[in-house]
Each structure stands twice: as structure tokens, then as C-alpha cells.
Amino acid sequence: MNTFDVAIIGSGPGGYVAAIRCAQLGMKTALIEKYDTLGGTCLNVGCIPSKSLLDSSHHFEDAQKHFATHGIEIEGEVKVNFEQMIARKAAVVEQTTKGIDYLMDKNKITVLRGLGRFKDAQTIEVVGDETQEISAKNTIIATGSKPASLPFISLDKERVITSTEALKLKEIPKHLVIIGGGVIGLELGQVYRRLGAEVSVVEYADRIASVMDASLSKELTKVMKKQGVKFFTSHQVQKVDRKGKEVLVEALDKKGNTVSFSGDYCLVSVGRRPYTDGLNAEAAGVKIDDRGRVEVNDHLQTTASNIFAIGDVVRGAMLAHKAEEEGVLVAEYLSGQKPHIDYNLIPNVIYTWPEVAAVGKTEEELKAAGTTYKVGQFPMRALGRARASMDTDGFIKILADAQTDEVLGVHMIGARAADLIAEAVTAMEFRASAEDISRMSHSHPTYAEAIKEAALAATENRALHV
User: Fold this and answer.
1) How many domains does the chain have?
2) Strand, helix or coil at 189?
3) pLDDT tens column, 273-295
4) Fewer CB within 10 A of the terminal residue: the chain, N end or C end?
5) Residue 405 sits in the same domain as residue 335
6) Cα separation of 46 and 355, whole Å?
7) 59 an active-site residue?
């Protein structure tokens, strides 16, 4: 039986990054993956393919609607070659997953193909083409999550689909009905709206992107409505039926009236659930809570002292970069270091266009906690760079402590917000005040100037360009 210092079950961003860091720290490392390719949901059927389609559809929309304004003329009609768009997405995925293979070889990590399941706390059975057993001094569970559904919905994965199927459709829907106004529904909804589909988003909460600051939800709703997406908030779905090529969705509005939607595809995007199927966690003494998550302490240690868990399978936001940080934390903890993660400073992003990004506390959270705060906000339309690129939607908002001026939260919607949020994370990691940010030189003309201006607005309302 092969013996390892650490075995990682699951090769998503949390798992493969944990494996690399363990190997860097001198541990004999095994990575167990049941699928043919490494990278987990993120690289195969999540982050990477969805961003590929978002970028491709964005190029199409620009060619269709904006090129002429820029003085770029195209002879004839701009058309979508959807088959090529999906093929390009697949090529990006293949290139990225092969990159993970390279990193495993480079770091001398043993990759074992098959379903990893515990026989006991030190023994893992890998069930693949050939079943084998390995012994691991420590194990990291990084099995991720799967799309969630509602108990009365039958996912046929043809017309009633999850995000996995939505990334590889054979045709552009005529009318895509989306159940759920969270990150996945909004991103894929925008992809297919750009490509010509009618898109209706049915959301149980009273606003889309309900985990974000309410001002971001309001602005994103306004922008996406302008793009042609229809929203039905405060609607509780009751029934989903497929009849041939038609999917019928029934929901109750906030007045209790039945509202019906008819589309050729229905995307169910009501969140994700931790995935521990087949893990046989109880054999190792690993406790699963009533929400299906692996129970862990502050060191991400499970109820079995030599077994840890990270990423979507434990508490907290289901984000690839959160899983990566946790993978590094466990690896360094096992080597005797004292790593830490400030979960308040894990940024959250929606990759629509304009992009939406946030870190720290929302206004709603500060109000609920009784924290006195001040607000500095700056509109993207006031930036010369935004006008030059025709990306004037959105704003940046900084929330700072009313007494100390420490930045407590940064919320933004606009071009390149997914990248701009890193400045906010950096500032908050070093306990910056709004004045600190306002006194830092920002190159002109850039989108990042809006962060400086929002900080000035929070500092005695001193914004310069509005």
C-alpha cells in the first residue's frame, strides 16, 4: 500500500492548490480525482467556461451595437456561429486543465484517478478502472459542490437544465426562463440575452444578487433591464413541467397570484450544495452537518483530527479563491506554520457587464450591527476613461467608520470591477482609512480613479470630478 504525508480528495481550485502547497513544503502528496480531467467545477463547468462565453458574447454585442460608433464598419449582418463559440470555450477549458496536469508533474504530485472514499481515518480506497488503497497521514477533503435544485423540479438536463448543461447547449434558446437571480443565473442570462434569446429571471427574494449591498442589486437590475432582461422578483416557483420542446413554469407573486412562464429552456440556478456523495465520511469519524457541510474548526480540521476540509464543502461563500486560500492555510498549518484567513476580506464578484464586485460589510450589515458609518460614492460616468470606452454605467461606493475613517466595505459596479476590487482588498488588509486611499496617486485616465474619488467623497465630501 502506498503511503503519503497528505492525500487530497478533489482537484478543484482548493484541492489542486492545496496539493501544490503541500508539495512545496516537502510533503509526499497524492491528489485523487474521479473525473477524467483535473480542475473541478471551476475549470471544467464553472468559472472558466462561463467567462469564455461571457467574453465571446460581449464581443458579439460590441460588434453588433458599438462598432459603428467607434468608426468600425462591417459589411453585411453580424452573425453568431454558436458552434464555434462553444468550441472555443471547450478549447479554453482543455488548455487550462492541461495546465493543471503540468503543475502536478512539476511538483511531483501523484495523481490517482477514481472515487476516493474512506475505509478509516488513515486509509482511502480509490475506486477507478482498478481499485487501490492508499494510506495517508493527513487527508484534505476538497470535493466541492453540485448545482442545487428544488424538490419538485425534475432536471432532465435537456430542457430543464443546470449551469453545466447551459454551458454546452446545441442552440441558442428562444426564451430562457431562469429560476434564481444569483451569480450563475445573471451571468448565463446575460450570455444568452446578448445572443438573441428572450430571458426571464424568476427570483424568490425581493431583489436579485441578494447577498450583495442593496445599491448594487438596484443598479444591476436597472442596467440589465436596459439590456432587455426581464426580472420577476418576489416570485415563488411552484411548478416546472416540460411538454415536448416547451417548459412551463408557474410561480406565485407577492400578492399570491399565479404567474406562468413558457420557454424552450429553463435554467435552474438556485445555488449549490456541498458534495460528499460516496465519501463514506462516517467511516473516518468525519461529521456532516444538517446542511450537508463537513464540520470544521478554525483550522479547517474535521471531527477526525488528521482530516481537514476546504472550499464549497465547508461553511462560507462558495468561491474558488476562498477554496484556494483555505487549501494553502491547511498545507501551511500541517507544516507547523501559523496561517490565517480574514473571511471578511474575501471579495465577491459577478462577471456580468458591467461587472459587480464587493468586499467587507454592506450598508445593511452595518445598520444591523449599529455601526456608525459614512458613505463616499462616485459615478463611473464622471470618468474620462469610462466615457472614452463607452462604459459609463455603475459607481463605486466606500463605507468608512464614522469615527476612525477605517474602510469597512467597498462596493462597485462598472467596467473592470472584478480587477479593481483587489485595490480595496489590499487597502482593507492593511486597515487603510478612506483618507489613506484618497491621498494615493491613481494614474489618469483609468477606471481606478473612481476608487480615489469615492474615498475623497467619504472624506468630508471632497470628490473632485463630480
Assistant:
1) 3
2) helix
3) 999 999 999 999 999 999 999 99
4) N
5) no
6) 17
7) no
